[in-house]
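Same chain as my last thread, 243 residues:
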Amino acid sequence: MGRQGLFVAEGEVVVRVLARGTRHEMLSLLVAEKRVAALADLIAALPEGVPAFAASQAVMDAMVGFHIHRGILALGRPRATPSAEALLAEAGERALVLLLVGLANHDNVGGVFRNAAAFGADAVILDAECCDPLYRKAIRVSVGATLVTPFTRLASDADPLAALSAAGFQPIALTPHGDTPLSLAPRPKKAALVLGPEGPGLDAALMARCRAVRIEMAPGLDSLNVATASGIALHHFSFAAKA
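reply #2:
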């Protein structure tokens, strides 16, 4: 993860998500002086031992290196990350999870996590090439979803589909060249939506082990932003009839 294993949550909505959640630990809070009164309830509800600091806007800007107009930052520490096997076992007998492969853009990863939370995905698994979902920008784009959605990261030498297969999940890969239109794709009892980078896409060998599904689009277009595609597919599989 870097940053001594810590992360920064930025903005009132995100910090409140961190404060309410149990997946990660808040270590301290920094608030602009002008916002102390408006955030009095949050400050009062902090767990014992979590300090809250107030500073002028100029001091906050100097500390972070830019104008932090949201006026609230929290320092957090992740709790122990479960293995993929444990995470999938907790998902239950009817589950929807995501496998992210090679997503290196924090905006996209944050957007995917926001969609995962919105449509009730049970977990997100990231391969070793994905960027950190607890990076400040990813947390902010996800509106705190990376702080509450169960996730884990695979080792660099791990087969990304091995744990899914062992747990009985059917991998479904999104690709413009998929044989099955998304609108006609049934929902497996245990479904794993596999998403890759927008440029190179998913590796052909990996694709061959998945059901390939495409999102229908207007003629002349063949791709969507991966976060947008994840929202469309998650909505479909959240409400599609079981296969």
